[in-house]
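ingest -> validate -> predict -> emit
validate: passed (alphabet ok, no gaps, 62 aa)
predict: started
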Amino acid sequence: MSSELESEIAETREHLGETVDALAAKLDVKTRAKQADKTPLVAAAVAVGGAVLAYLVWPRKA
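emit:
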């Protein structure tokens, strides 16, 4: 029974560590701001690339 309890404690500690890491990541405002700055730029680049590709592939009337 002691080993079961120790196993449960170890598992709980692991989950608690993951929770603490997730909370720390959410509270790291500087890093989150840097990541948020790049997201719109990437989305715009993908949209422009798609538009260019559509223009090149779309059949033209003669």
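The chain has two helices and no strands.
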